[in-house]
Amino acid sequence: MKYTDKGAEGVRIAYVGGGSRGWAWGLMSDLVSCPDMSGEVRLYDIDKEAARRNEVIGNLFNGAEGARSHWDFRAADTLGEALSGADFVVISILPATFDEMESDVHTPEKYGIYQSVGDTSGPGGIIRALRLIPMIEVIAEGIREYCPEAWVINYTNPMTMTVRTLYRVFPDIKAFGCCHEVFGTQKLLASVLEDMCGIEGVKREEVKVNVIGVNHFTWLTSAQYKNIDLMPVYSEFVDKYYESGYTKGMDDNWMNNTFACSHRVKFDLFKRYGLIAAAGDRHLAEFVEGKWYLSSREAVREWGFGLTPVSWRKENLKERLEKSERRLKGEDIVIAETGEDGVSQMRALLGLDTLVTNVNLPNMGQIPNLPIGAVVETNACFSSNSVTPVLAGEIPMNIYPLISRIVASQELVVKAAGERDLDTVFVAFANDPLVDLPLDDARSLFDEMVENTKAYLGEYFK
Amino acid sequence: MKYTDKGAEGVRIAYVGGGSRGWAWGLMSDLVSCPDMSGEVRLYDIDKEAARRNEVIGNLFNGAEGARSHWDFRAADTLGEALSGADFVVISILPATFDEMESDVHTPEKYGIYQSVGDTSGPGGIIRALRLIPMIEVIAEGIREYCPEAWVINYTNPMTMTVRTLYRVFPDIKAFGCCHEVFGTQKLLASVLEDMCGIEGVKREEVKVNVIGVNHFTWLTSAQYKNIDLMPVYSEFVDKYYESGYTKGMDDNWMNNTFACSHRVKFDLFKRYGLIAAAGDRHLAEFVEGKWYLSSREAVREWGFGLTPVSWRKENLKERLEKSERRLKGEDIVIAETGEDGVSQMRALLGLDTLVTNVNLPNMGQIPNLPIGAVVETNACFSSNSVTPVLAGEIPMNIYPLISRIVASQELVVKAAGERDLDTVFVAFANDPLVDLPLDDARSLFDEMVENTKAYLGEYFK
Amino acid sequence: MKYTDKGAEGVRIAYVGGGSRGWAWGLMSDLVSCPDMSGEVRLYDIDKEAARRNEVIGNLFNGAEGARSHWDFRAADTLGEALSGADFVVISILPATFDEMESDVHTPEKYGIYQSVGDTSGPGGIIRALRLIPMIEVIAEGIREYCPEAWVINYTNPMTMTVRTLYRVFPDIKAFGCCHEVFGTQKLLASVLEDMCGIEGVKREEVKVNVIGVNHFTWLTSAQYKNIDLMPVYSEFVDKYYESGYTKGMDDNWMNNTFACSHRVKFDLFKRYGLIAAAGDRHLAEFVEGKWYLSSREAVREWGFGLTPVSWRKENLKERLEKSERRLKGEDIVIAETGEDGVSQMRALLGLDTLVTNVNLPNMGQIPNLPIGAVVETNACFSSNSVTPVLAGEIPMNIYPLISRIVASQELVVKAAGERDLDTVFVAFANDPLVDLPLDDARSLFDEMVENTKAYLGEYFK
Amino acid sequence: MKYTDKGAEGVRIAYVGGGSRGWAWGLMSDLVSCPDMSGEVRLYDIDKEAARRNEVIGNLFNGAEGARSHWDFRAADTLGEALSGADFVVISILPATFDEMESDVHTPEKYGIYQSVGDTSGPGGIIRALRLIPMIEVIAEGIREYCPEAWVINYTNPMTMTVRTLYRVFPDIKAFGCCHEVFGTQKLLASVLEDMCGIEGVKREEVKVNVIGVNHFTWLTSAQYKNIDLMPVYSEFVDKYYESGYTKGMDDNWMNNTFACSHRVKFDLFKRYGLIAAAGDRHLAEFVEGKWYLSSREAVREWGFGLTPVSWRKENLKERLEKSERRLKGEDIVIAETGEDGVSQMRALLGLDTLVTNVNLPNMGQIPNLPIGAVVETNACFSSNSVTPVLAGEIPMNIYPLISRIVASQELVVKAAGERDLDTVFVAFANDPLVDLPLDDARSLFDEMVENTKAYLGEYFK
After folding, report:
1. Which of A430, C17, D213, D447 is the Cys-Cys partner for A442 at CB 3.0 to 4.6 Å?
2. Residues A340 and A176 sit within 8 Å (Cβ to Cβ)
3. Domains and CATH numbers, chain D
4. Is the pTM of this model over 0.90?
5. Tens of pLDDT along C25-35?
6. Which helix (H) or strand (E) segment is A347 a member of?
7. CB A391 to CB C226 under 8 A?
């Protein structure tokens, strides 16, 4: 890599999960839109064919209208080949297939447990973590071997447990996790400014928030636009839309647009705790007692959000595969801003800018009343070769029970999965707020979910 | 006070709630049994007649068989009179009457919420705290004024919130809270030694335990008798008696003898978490999801413990009043060891001995992963004019969710009650593991319970 | 205040010490240069005449070449008048006169103690703090009364003890302390890049540093320019210039230009500890054993820095008074960038930008191994109505002894001065690394310095 | 091991350094005096002949008048043989010979640095640690391999760095360090009670103290006898004896009796800080600026303590060798209470008693404002298979600079010695309060001391 008057040239990015037909395409678009970075992207995927197709598509993006820099996309045959000498590593993988995810999400329904996403917390998130953690261990070891100085950006869910595992395996790793859920809440607050104060055109970055919590269960303890304290304004907004929900300005990110929410869960949590929960309602609902928002399909509908069935994901995947076909032919190669922070973060880490945004990092004290080492989400400051969390402060006592239980559970799962100890994983499983079952039933469910996904759990049965 | 070859003479004890017909009589018996302390006990009670009757009874104890020291018992007309120059203050009061307690315990039953005790946690414990906290504030202010150097021993429930309030009002107070529930678990472990290892006659003090948690929801992270690690032994014991429960060696303490438990809740918690919950099952059950052990009267019966109806307490009070009548006549004045630590603690604080036992104190780091200042229960070392907690260690991650939520809730209630802020108290109420209700129902229940006990909640409606 | 398309209008700044002929003029220049803020500045000074003259001068700045916004400058008769409704408060005062400072700096010379500045640490800094702390208490109380929501920027030395006192008196104050010493070190590192790597024109803001320590005794644990780790480069630079010192690119800030340094102290500290001390050598030398760099005038000369005699300050004051005369006549009203961060910080706090820079704030955990509450200097993130420290990390063990002793001393002085307890202040005085004296001599010196400045220490003798 | 009605039988003790002619004999005497423990002691020493002689002497102790239990003493040929299956391990070794110690203590005198002991802190303590740490690593590894569950009692100096190294190598070790220096201060306080209050016959255990600090630089933040607060009494005592020193009731422990102190250093430290330094003056003097108490032989004499020349140790060793000869012949085998806590600690760990006493343990929060993991000295509670520190509290700010610098230095030395990194060791060496030298001189001294003892520092030059 070198710096010229055009910025940083020769930047090397390894993309693990590089056959992706979602995040990978978004990154392609963001990279070629960025005027002051260029280099190469090595796409590694266990589905090698997918990586190769993305190599073609990626290189086509260099010619798209609006492209401002050039990137060489290249499929890598091995993880080592992708990682060697990388400046950045992006991790965005699916642990197993949508068949396993189908079990994660839908098996618990037999016991009356509904999950709106099923990839982060709850029974689905925990079983998914079991499959994922051994994979992440391999990636972490690869990074230690091939590019120990690289910055590692994780997008894989469950986010917290992924980042925690990266650090468990390689404590000196320079890794963090990125998620756009807080951005969605900032956009909602921009809408609040329009709706309640008549202030239009506020960008989400202009809404300054203090972020605290764990990924997908993040909270804002303050929200400010210029000299306007948004907390009382939001309070009135909640009163106005509590019953109806608020559906304008909905997030149209590709991951979310088919399953919008009306923010009623968020509003209800505000009524309970006086703080702004800062993620999509589908995620938030999974971190609290199941009966609050997820007791039945009807309840979910009333609360104004959607359960995302895995059948939808399978269908959507087909569409994305078709899109892949079209793109391979050079169609549909269109640059569209994703709103993700990944490329901005890289620029800041290369010293081309300074950025303050929310990320997932091990707790070094940024949240003093959560365990040191646990992965938490707060704002952090990005600058040359450095990501430093800001001191977000203590979790307020009213939401402390909700968050501390999740943190403890995730800590337990990561440690136990690292030791391939299913019985201890089950302790966390049975503690989960969605697993509102007698102990025997909880164990039956756990065993069934493990059985269903056993093809990917070989490590636990050695 | 002075020291002679007989020990400490002229010790002054103020007993707040000195009309009591339980703890007070126990203390009388323990005091006159103690050979190396003598002095006076000032009995203060808002029921002055009760205090005066106890003055008579107390003085009669000096003549009981086995009495080894002399104490002057004296009813005090005012709190200030009782406290002036006291070396020790004992606090053991009932906030309001059993009518209010009846509402605390039984009103939630309308919503399917059963409470086995209802004085510590759960809806009953929280509403009881609302009445109690303003009373404790007055006592703390009295101590600051009349005897700031006195050692203050609290027996009042809810224990945690009482001790926390004492320190909130008077940060330099030398107060701690005492509870015998851990002793009962030590006795159970002595039975385990007999049942599993054939070792008879072990005293509870010989079973060395590391205590961690909050009052009535304490846990043992280790238990050792000489060179025997009791954790694996207990594990086998749990397997043996899990279904049947274990009923030998039941606690016959006056507070508990009518409502024994078979330890099945304790065994179930051990199966879940691998740690020994160290309180009576009636208490333990109230700190976890209601549906685990308290879903119905039938479930409670199956789990082998009892709900203590307030009607029983009212009936029992009548018996105790009758006993009071007899005692006033000099009958039934019998010294019987209570097994409580109060007098031993006083002796140690006077420098007559060293004692290590479990008490409730503000967290100064003895449990590093709970909030500083929150009241926790651990072992502490008592010696001349000093109570110092031992470093009990971190709450293990598997039970951390259960304990941290309770601590947070109690912190919230104490602060909010101190500010007479019912809405914030309600946040904790709605978070309680027993309050498994929709938010509206939770609020209705809260409002009803407040209404029922409003005569004692005037402070909140000023 | 309101926001228009020109930015923030009607911003109200209170300047305490507004008769200043240094910082105040710098701020005038910076304010009128700032295109997107306008409003008024109330100048309060116990020297009312000085404030009134600055009112005239300030208003003249509006007409200077390059002025881009309009500010009303206005002398305020009382502190309350200045503070009422202020959005920002600037504190930049001299505690007493240069006569008292003469005693602070030069009396210790009788005992062989030389001080290069004498306003921060060492005997001079401590005695200065005694005079200052009661004044700061009055200001803090005024802020609580008149503008509790204002952001307070302190420039007064001793910085640490001033900021600590502001928070001690008014714990909810929104105050921080600003200092340009780290900037000077960033500039030195820019010179290093030129000298060692041939990279020219690097701005100090582009050198990204992790700042840790206390004001004037700050250290850099990392320094990075783009992808260049400056630590090994600096190490070679130190080797190159260790003997000769490095004098190019010297700071020409008005406060420093007459007493430049050759960085030999900084280089020596790097040789000892492998970390970059980040303040002027005159300041650094005062925080370590006197005999290292301050044993005699000759030693100071050899180390390549200067002792700043108070006679120079008196002389310089005369020049500044003459300049004041000229400015009153409209001469010499020239806008010159000061390089200070004050106006940038205000802009960020108003939501017009985001800024990451070093400031002095109470430790909330940003330096986990220093006491909570002690004022420390680290980077912080400024955005709308918020200053949040970043997690700077632990003080490395090799410099921990040097810094922890200073922190403890400052904590002790602030507390003791707050209680007007000279004997405890003396404990810190005698512990000071410069006060390398037998206890009796230390006390004689202390008493003499107190006596010399007694006119301003009345509070301690009530 | 088994328990009978006589207590614990078959207890196995490994004594590393078992050829010792001091501590080993004391332990023999204490063991056979203890009625409720018996078993075997394996004596391991690199001087095998010395161990064999102690085998004979130890077995003779079983027949001494007053012996109440039987112990088999047995020389072990290898460390592994000594450690296998041990219940307790005692470590009491001399790193190298008195020739090396001669260099440690006396080489710095060339530079005007006097050391009264030279085995704990200061240049002598640091160089001694360099030799010792690799030896301790071998022992720690042996314990991990042969007796990982054993309790390990260290008496070797430097105490702090030894215990720290044990935990660094084997984090699950059950080790602590014992030292009698605090006992001596308790005895002094008993004398204070006699001298000032006319209370005679107080035992040192009855003086209850809160111990805080690091070994040989421990402080008492409270001292209480029954209801007497000893702090004000001690203050008057200090005034009375400040000039003359106090020499009655001098410690006659074998280690100390030839070099008594008059407590003037202790008194002076009390005058400075208002807290009781709790070790012999010879030790205390080495932790503060050399010029305070160790500036010259004359100064030491005036301060009323002694420098212990290594020539004395060599002479004393001859006497002890002669004593060894006599003892081998069965002469002089006399039981004499040592006043050490070792055997009491073993009894408590075996569940035969409960004991609260001061020990050296890694900081788990017992001193919240010192680094976690650093070895500190506080009280701890000993019971069955458990040593738990009590929460000693924060180091007061007035002595924090003195203690924190020592802790940091020891942390640095242990880490650097573990990595065989002499340059970093030198950073700590140059920081030492006794090493009041220009950097070049400090390095010359360091290099000379390393050179002098190079025969034992081979590990650092591989």
Report:
1. A430
2. no
3. 2-95+117-179 (3.90.1820.10), 96-116+180-308+341-462 (3.90.1820.10)
4. yes
5. 999 999 999 99
6. helix A342-349
7. no
